[in-house]
Every structure is written in structure tokens, then in C-alpha cells.
Specification:
With 839 residues, the protein is an alpha/beta fold. It contains 29 helices and 21 strands. Strands 11-12-10-13-14-9-15 form a 7-stranded parallel beta sheet, sandwiched between helices. Strands 16-21-20-17-19-18 form a 6-stranded parallel beta sheet, with helices on both faces. A hairpin with a 4-residue loop joins strand 3 and strand 4.
Length: 839
């Protein structure tokens, strides 16, 4: 088989397997044309075959899945015909069995479309009011009895059970689902151009008169082509459609039509292939306007979905009750909901589209703000025990610390002290960059509570981190020498409870917590297990709070009666996200590093420069330091192209660092084995620790000064920053070396940003822009509906929405006023799971 044909069939098979998503080739099938055409001509394929493939692949991205299947069937049939490299078209074969099988769903869907009655499109209503035509359309669409928005999509004309089942796969079950199923993009065909000013490659709308039209068979009758010549007085152009013979009867000579599509070129002349076409007197849903493009699924046609959307939008949008109070709309200068919905689907202009998007995005953030404020209010209405630490005592505790507080630490302690003295349960988030000293805040909070005989629990996500907190807080709170009479706790009053704690010791700790003799317990999720009962739990501290689910936080809270809650994270949270998703929490930001800490020097190395990194590690180890090497995978079997920890550990020990001690840790090891390796590394038994990202959170090895990350292009900014935070925890200069998988990944934007700044908040903003809010939200996403239009990087929009939500809450926190009743109903719908604990 000729190489050009074999390659094309390979791409077609992959495209069929992928469901015609136009991703068998990066960028789309049409991207292979330059190289393929050159190879096809060297194989002496006929010009007609080459031109057919070129036309087919150029138009392929503009087709719907059903049409793509048909196009691949036709192109496959031509490629399988004997003698085509010599232009011999006399013995064409039928499509292959594989091609036929691929085409069956497409043919079935095409048949369904023909059988379904096609509703006549109606003009879009303007200025939020339904036109007479729209009202007549509603009677025709719904019959004599108009359904509600909760009615099934099957009430629409032409939507049967099979099509309704297809729509349900993309979440479209009711008319309301259609109303809020926003376009994923828009094609602007609103700028008409005369034919004599058209240029190759542009997408445009052409208005003209049909001069001639005819349909002829091609490829030995396997396909039909409808050709028309369109003229507008300035020039004429040829337009063709494949396998759409019915179009000839829809536009006889003399018919005025509007065409929308991409300008192609054939034999030096401009053409259009498979453009959208509508008679000029109809309302233009697909041409001569800004056209909405919706996300589809297999066997769903863009044109048919657009008509369904138009039926629903034109009737229902003008009848929607605007749930936003007039005072809010007026303050922010928002258009009404009806106009917004009409223009988000079928915009009158680009300006109206922008205004509609702003209104609907505001709604999403506003409802989100109301939800978190309602959660915060319900929590603050509860009462909590007052812990009012005297200033003199607090000063003594701060003086005992082995270091001076930063300004950020002092402010955070003041915030916590105020919360504990307020009589309401504290609900505070401490967010601080890696190494900013959050543990001190937890220690002082525990000291304030235990001073009055109450108990505190501090929960960490891993045993290693819990042990680290235990050591750190012990140094800060426990009396170590007789002269240290001001220490808040005695050694027996603070205990560590993790999975590896011996059973007899666990029983001792459980008894001490129940009778109150143990004041502070630090541990993992073992703290919240059912056998644990507290005598008087008044403070719950959760570190790396995004690692715990809502149910785990609620379980810890339930161990006491309205205990104060302090959550901490080392992942800097962008300001816009802190104002929205974390709006129910009071926020303390620790944006200063303790004195003596040096910024980690970060460099991006090419893969061929790896030896430079090894030399730096040898130099640091000779000075008594240690190093990490991080790999994205555990074992090579996961990916042949990516370095993995297990194999690389063997290579490094046997061939690179033969005289050094190289340890290995990864996520598939048992917890006790991971803890053993980590403790050995901390004690200095290993010079280098080869690991996966299990070292990402909290591990404190001040002697480690080099962090080398292989496959760095595979990690997000937040994760790279967390890994970098494992070094630079002492006073010595530390280094972070980023090595991408290959030369092509050297330009990775995340890597260059890492080398530019050590500021976690700057990196967090970039990560939010590049990767979206999922990196930060974790389990919190379940608390509210998915945001469809709002951009969580738009601080201006977020601040306006928060300002309005706060003002409304001041006047009517229950939303009980008559003018706020529609908003209260919409808020309940938006927060699908009610008031759950989202902090």
C-alpha cells in the first residue's frame, strides 16, 4: 500500500475510535495536509483524489460528528479503490466493513433528522419582550397548553424519546436545562461582505442570488455533489455541498440566500464547501449574525440543537422572573435577566453579548457569596466559650519563644485571640506560604484554651506531619527545665496519636482525653475515630485543610460543643478565590518569612544539563548537606517516556552516586515504611532521598538544601512550589532545579515563572489563571453549582458581587422581604446540597 494512503487510513481509524472529535492529530486532521499532499504527489496519486482529500480535510473541523463520519466513509472508500495512484476510477470498491460500521450511527442519526418535522425558526425577541411571531411559535411548539420550565424536552416539536435520551447525556432533561445551557463559543457571521472582496481562509457571511444549481453523482455514484453559482452583483462564486441533494430543491435559480462558512480555494478560484445556508426571508439562526455554538455529544447536530434552543429561549426568556432585587440591579447597572438570557444565546451584537455575560456571571458570584455569608452567619449565631487571655500572660508566652515573631505572625495571633474572646465560635483560615510559621499560631491558640482547663486537638493529614507538629509544639509549650515555670503545659499533658501508636498507649491517651488530664492531642484522622471522647474540647486545629473532606472536619467539630475552629493551609490562595469560595471563613494572611530565611535559588535545566545538577548536589553533600530528587512516576511501566523513581533510584545508586547513601520513598510503600525512610533521612542516614510527590506537604528537613525535580513540566505551580518548600528551611542557601521531560518542554510557562519568583501568592494567581480553580477548591466544589460563566480571576466582578451581598445581608439576612423572595428561592436551587459545612 502506498505510504500516503496508509498514513491517512491510520489517522482515520484513530479518529473513528475517538468518536470524531478531530483530535486524532494535534490541532485537527487538517494540520497533516501540507506534508500529506507532498507525499501523495510523490506517490503519484491522481489530482482528483488529492483534491478531494484536501477539500474533505479542510472542511472536516467545521462539520458535526454525524457529518464527519460520513466524510470519513467517503474518503476511505476513495482511498481503497484500486489503481487510484494512476487516476484510475473505473473500478471503485465499496467502503470497507470498518468504514461501514463507523458510518452506521451517523446514517441512523441522519435518518432520524429527516424523519423529524423541522420547526420554522422565528425572529428573536428584542428588548426582553416576546414578539407576536414568538407567541405564535410557542402555540405551535407546545400546543394549546403551555408547560412549565420543569417540563421534559420532549414537549418540544421534533424531540422524541430517542433524541431526549441523547440530550440527557449532556444534562439537558428539562426546558430550564436548555435555558441555562450556554454556548461554549460564538461564530461571528454578522459582517456581510460582497463577493469581490472575499479573501481565502476567512469565515464570513455572503448574501446573494442563486444563478444555477444542480446535483451530480461523483465517485461512481458513491457520493452526490450539489453545486450552485451565487452572484451578488459584484461577482459570482461556486458553492458545493456533499451528499445533501435536497438542497437543490430548496434553492431554485432566482432564490436569494444567505451563506455562512469558510472561504476555500479550488483551481485558483474562491469557493465555499458545505456552508450553512438559509433563505433570506427567514430569521437567521445559523448565518448573518453572531451564531452560538453549543457543546454536543454523538448523534446530536449543531443545527438541530440550535433550533431547539431558539424555540425555548424565544418563548421562555421573556417570561422569566428576574430574581435579583431592583436595588442590586440598579446599583451595579445590570440588564434584566430576560434580556441577558436572550443575548447570551442569540446576541444582537457583540456589545450585548458582553453585557449579557457580565450579568449572568455576576449572578453566579452573587449567589455564591450569599451562600457562604449565610453559612458564616449561621455559625456565628451559635455561642462559644470565651477565652480571654491577659496581655501580661500572652507577652510572657511570646517572650519564651526561641525566635522573634514576624509582623504577620503577630497579626495572626491578635486575630485568633480576638476570636477566642468573642463568645462566638472561631472560624478562621490561616493561609501562609511554605515556612511562614503557621505552627506558632496553632501553639499559642492551644495555650490560650488550655490555660483555662479546656482541651485542644490538632489534626494533620499524615503521620509524618503530625509527628513534626508534635515536636515543634512541644518545644514551644512544654516545660523542659525546672526554671521554665511559665510553660503552659507539662509533658504528660500533650500526646501524639497516630495509626502506629501502640494499642496500650492509645488506651492510655483515650482515658486521658476523656478525664481531661490530657490537654492537647496531636495526630491524624485517628483523633476523630469513634472511641475518642473528649472531656472538654474547645479548639480544633486542622492543618492542610484541603486534604480533609467535609465529613472529617464535621466529625472533629462534633467531638466538642461548638468548639473554636482554626484551619491552616500552606497553599497560598489567590485573593479572588479567598473572597468567594472561602468567604465563610475569617482570613489571616501570613505573607512574611521568618528572619534568616534565604529565598530558594531556582533554575530550569535542559535535560542534557542534568550532570550540572548532580555536581551541585555532590558539592552540597560534601559540605554536610542533603538533597531530594523528585520523579513524577513510581515505576517505569506507567510511561515509557517518563523517568520513574524506582528505576532511577537503582541507576543513581549504582552509576551516579556510588559513594553516597541514596534512599527511596514513594506512595505505594506502606505508611510505616514511608515513615521509617523519612525519619532516617531526617536523622542523616541518607545523603539523597529519591521520592515521588509524597514529600510535598509539611516534611521539615532543615539540612536539605537541594531539590531536583525531574519531569517538572508535568506539575502545576502550586505543586512545584510545595515541593520547592521542602528545602530552604534552614539558614543556608538552598537550590531548586527543574528539569523537563524533553527539550520541547523547556518553554513551559510554569517553569519560567518558578525561576522568576519565590512568592507563593504570585504563583497562586498564575496557577488560577492557567489551570482554573480546581487546584484550590478540592472537596469544596461539592458545595455549590458549577460556575458556567464567572471567571474566578475577575477580582473586580467578585468585589462588586461581595459588596452587594454584604449590603443585602445587613438589611435582610433571612431574605424574607417580599422583594427578596424570588432570590431566596433561586439561592436554594443554586446551593444544591443546602447549608452543609463547607469550611
Amino acid at each position: 500500500m502506498l505510504s500516503s494512503i496508509e498514513k491517512l487510513q491510520k489517522f482515520f481509524r484513530l479518529e473513528i475510535e475517538r468518536g470524531y472529535d478531530n483530535r486524532a492529530v494535534v490541532g485537527g486532521l487538517d494540520k497533516i495536509l501540507p506534508a500529506w499532499e507532498s507525499e501523495a504527489r510523490s506517490n503519484k496519486l491522481s489530482d482528483e483524489i488529492i483534491q478531494l482529500i484536501i477539500t474533505g480535510l479542510k472542511t472536516y473541523p467545521t462539520l458535526e460528528p454525524v457529518q464527519r463520519a460520513e466524510a470519513i466513509v467517503e474518503m476511505t472508500a476513495q482511498l481503497e479503490a484500486p489503481g487510484i495512484q494512476k487516476g484510475d476510477e473505473t473500478n471503485q470498491q465499496a467502503p470497507s466493513p470498518a468504514a461501514k460500521q463507523a458510518a452506521e450511527p451517523a446514517a441512523q442519526a441522519s435518518l432520524e433528522r429527516k424523519e423529524q418535522p423541522r420547526p420554522r425558526p422565528q425572529p428573536a425577541a428584542s428588548k426582553g419582550q416576546p414578539s407576536n411571531q414568538a407567541r405564535r411559535a410557542s402555540a405551535r411548539v407546545y400546543g394549546t397548553e403551555t408547560p412549565g420550565l420543569d417540563a421534559s424536552v420532549q414537549v418540544l416539536q421534533g424531540v422524541g424519546s430517542r433524541l431526549a435520551q441523547t440530550l440527557s447525556t449532556i444534562g439537558l432533561n428539562t426546558l430550564e436545562d436548555l435555558l441555562y445551557y450556554f454556548p461554549r463559543r460564538y461564530d461571528d457571521y454578522s459582517q456581510l461582505k460582497p463577493i469581490n472582496r472575499l479573501t481565502f481562509g476567512e469565515e464570513t457571511t455572503v448574501l446573494g442570488t442563486v444563478q444555477s444549481v444542480h446535483t451530480r453523482p461523483i465517485r461512481n455514484g458513491k457520493m452526490q455533489m450539489t453545486e450552485a453559482v451565487i452572484s451578488d452583483g459584484t461577482g459570482a462564486m461556486r458553492v458545493n455541498w456533499f451528499n445533501q441533494p435536497w438542497l437543490a430543491s430548496k434553492m431554485p435559480a432566482g432564490t436569494q440566500v444567505v451563506l455562512a462558512g469558510k472561504i476555500e480555494q479550488y483551481m485558483g478560484r474562491l469557493t465555499m464547501t458545505n456552508p450553512e445556508m438559509e433563505p433570506i426571508e427567514t430569521e437567521h439562526l445559523h448565518t448573518n449574525r453572531i451564531v452560538p455554538v453549543y457543546s454536543l455529544t454523538a448523534q446530536l447536530n449543531q443545527k438541530n440543537l440550535r433550533r431547539m434552543m431558539f424555540q425555548t429561549i424565544s418563548y421562555w426568556a421573556p417570561r422569566i422572573t428576574d430574581y435579583l432585587p431592583e436595588r442590586v440591579r440598579g446599583s451595579v447597572k445590570l440588564i434584566d435577566l430576560s434580556t441577558a438570557l436572550l443575548n447570551i444565546h442569540f446576541p444582537e451584537s457583540q456589545d450585548m453579548l458582553d453585557i449579557a455575560r457580565w450579568r449572568l456571571a455576576f449572578d453566579e458570584i452573587f449567589l455564591l457569596q450569599l451562600g457562604v455569608l449565610s453559612q458564616k452567619r449561621s455559625w456565628q449565631q451559635a455561642s462559644a466559650q470565651v477565652f480571654d487571655a491577659p496581655q501580661e500572660w500572652l507577652d510572657q508566652q511570646i517572650t519564651r519563644l526561641p525566635f522573634a515573631l514576624t509582623g504577620a505572625q503577630a497579626r495572626s495571633i491578635a486575630d485568633v485571640r480576638s476570636d477566642l474572646a468573642s463568645g462566638r465560635p472561631m472560624d478562621r483560615l490561616i493561609q501562609g506560604d511554605v515556612g511562614s510559621g503557621k505552627t506558632v499560631i496553632a501553639a499559642i491558640a492551644a495555650a490560650i484554651v488550655t490555660r483555662e482547663g479546656a482541651q485542644a486537638a490538632i489534626m494533620a493529614p499524615t503521620s509524618i506531619l503530625a509527628e513534626q507538629h508534635f515536636r515543634s509544639i512541644s518545644r514551644l509549650l512544654i516545660e523542659t527545665v525546672e526554671e521554665d515555670s511559665q510553660a503552659p503545659l507539662k509533658p504528660e499533658e500533650m500526646r501524639l496519636l497516630i495509626g502506629d501508636t501502640p494499642e496500650n498507649e492509645k488506651q492510655e491517651i483515650r482515658a486521658g482525653l476523656e478525664n481531661g488530664s490530657i490537654k492537647v492531642v496531636i495526630g491524624t484522622h485517628a483523633i476523630i475515630e469513634s472511641p475518642i471522647q473528649f472531656n472538654r474540647l474547645q479548639l480544633a486545629v486542622i492543618d492542610e485543610q484541603h486534604r480533609f473532606g467535609v465529613s472529617q472536619r464535621a466529625a472533629l467539630r462534633s467531638k466538642g460543643e461548638n468548639p473554636h475552629l482554626l484551619v491552616m493551609t500552606a497553599t497560598p490562595i489567590p485573593r479572588s478565590l479567598a473572597l468567594t469560595v472561602y468567604g465563610d471563613l475569617d482570613l489571616s494572611v501570613m505573607d512574611e518569612m521568618p528572619p534568616g530565611r534565604q529565598p530558594v535559588s531556582t533554575h530550569v535545566l535542559r535535560p542534557v544539563e542534568r550532570e550540572r545538577g548532580y555536581n551541585l548536589m555532590r558539592s552540597q553533600i560534601e559540605q554536610g548537606r542533603q538533597a531530594f530528587i523528585i520523579y513524577p512516576l513510581v515505576e517505569q511501566g506507567d510511561s515509557e517516556d517518563t523517568l520513574a523513581a524506582v528505576e532511577e533510584h537503582k541507576r543513581l545508586q549504582s552509576a551516579i552516586f556510588t559513594k553516597l547513601r541514596v534512599g527511596l520513598m514513594h506512595g505505594r510503600m506502606k505508611q510505616e515504611d514511608k515513615d521509617r525512610v523519612m525519619n532516617s533521612f531526617r536523622k542523616g542516614d541518607y545523603d539523597i532521598l529519591v521520592s515521588t510527590t509524597v514529600v510535598e506537604v509539611g516534611v521539615d528537613v532543615p539540612n536539605a538544601t537541594v531539590m531536583l525535580i525531574e519531569g517538572a513540566n508535568r506539575f502545576g505551580l502550586a505543586q512545584l512550589h510545595q515541593l520547592r518548600g521542602r528545602v530552604g528551611r534552614g539558614s543556608d542557601q538552598s537550590f531548586c532545579l527543574l528539569i523537563p521531560d524533553n527539550e520541547d518542554a523547556m518553554e513551559n510557562e510554569r517553569l519560567s515563572v518558578m525561576s522568576e519568583t519565590n512568592d507563593g501568592f504570585v504563583l497562586a494567581e498564575r496557577d488560577l489563571q492557567q489551570r482554573g480553580p480546581g487546584e484550590f477548591l478540592g472537596t469544596r466544589q461539592a458545595g455549590f453549582s458549577e460556575l458556567k460563566l464567572a471567571n474566578l480571576t475577575d477580582v473586580r466582578l467578585i468585589e462588586k458581587a461581595r459588596q452587594q451581598a454584604l449590603a443585602l445581608f445587613e438589611d435582610d439576612p433571612e431574605l424574607s422581604a417580599p422583594e427578596n423572595q424570588p432570590l431566596a428561592k433561586r439561592l436554594q436551587e443554586f446551593w444544591e446540597n443546602g447549608k452543609g459545612d463547607i469550611s
